[in-house]
Amino acid sequence: MSLRDRLRAGSFAVTAEISPPRGASTEPVTATAALLRDWVDAVNVTDNQGSNVRLASWAGSLAALHAGLEPVMQMTCRDRNRIALQSDLLGASALGIRNILVMTGDHPKFGDHPEAKPVFDLDSVQLLWTLRHMRDQGTVLTGRALKPPPDCFLGAVENPAAPPAEFRAERLGKKVAAGAQFVQTQFVFDVAAFAQWMAQVRDLGLHEQCYILPGVGAVRSRNALDYMRDKVPGVYVPDDVYRRLRAVPADQTAAEGARLAAETIQQLSAIEGVAGVHLLVAGNEQAVPGILDSAGVRAEDHGR
Q: HEC profile for the chain?
């Protein structure tokens, strides 16, 4: 069952994430896909995340697909203009890559080529509209016909904890109106605050128009915890969560982080309108089976 079919069927979906390697090989993607294949429904393949040069998202997505794991190809607006972005969608669809996650992308100044010229010809909302137009109208932006048009399931990202909180649900509404069919969020550590955001989402009826998968991560170390709390924009780590993870010995932080992730999944799954979860565990994929098993999400429900 594809990610699109699973969500449409009302089943609880699980996605994860793979960071392509910094090198000309798909083997790391294939190896990670083998770890995740029996536990998740699809896996995001990032697009030069953090504005750092890595293997292309389309190449990593194709490698995951060949390894038996459905990819979600990320597509950022940072590096390509509207011609290249439309071309990338056609290429992905032709290769059997159906899930496309759209985001604006980090500015190059934050990455390994800070002198690079950013493109940002379109932003994420405009790109969603463009890709939906190509699929549903069967033309490129200029009106020239596509034969055949691409088949794609369009996703977006959202950050419920970022200020101003009162406008975050409305921001999601703009992306849904532009074409987003599913959304994955930033890390959720404050379940109560996320539940408030979901209440706003339900008030707007967006949960009936878009499948929402909150992001869940497993903190592996105290350094990672401090970095996430102090350095990652839009991530809010409540004091009780911070104290809990700091209270255990340093060599037990990863285990406690995994337990917290499992508990978070259970709590999020009980919120009306939550269609699944997105596991943000890049580099810690071996923890996925234990987290999902503890959360009551079984391999037989998701594996192929």
A: CCHHHHHHCCCCEEEEEECCCCCCCCHHHHHHHHHHCCCCCEEEECCCHHHCCCCCHHHHHHHHHHCCCCEEEEEECCCCCHHHHHHHHHHHHHCCCCEEEEECCCCHHHCCCCCCCCCCCCCHHHHHHHHHHHHHHCECCCCCECCCCCCCEEEEEECCCCCCHHHHHHHHHHHHHHCCCEEEEEECCCHHHHHHHHHHHHHCCHHHCCEEEEEECCCCCHHHHHHHHHHCCCCCCCHHHHHHHHHCCHHHHHHHHHHHHHHHHHHHHCCCCECEEEECCCCCHHHHHHHHHHCCCCHHHHCC
Quick one: angle between helices 82-94 and 124-137, nearest 10? Answer: 50
Q: What are phi and psi of 119, to 5 degrees?
A: -100, -70
Name the region of 290 (left: φ>0; alpha: ψ -120 to 50; beta: rest). Answer: alpha
pTM of this prediction?
0.94
193: its two tokens: 């605050």
Give the lowest-confidence range in 47-61, 108-122, 212-226, 230-244.
230-244
Q: What is the pLDDT of residues 249-298, one digit of tens each?
A: 999 999 999 999 999 999 999 999 999 999 998 778 889 999 999 999 86
User: Quick one: CATH architecture of 3-302?
Assistant: Alpha-Beta Barrel (3.20)
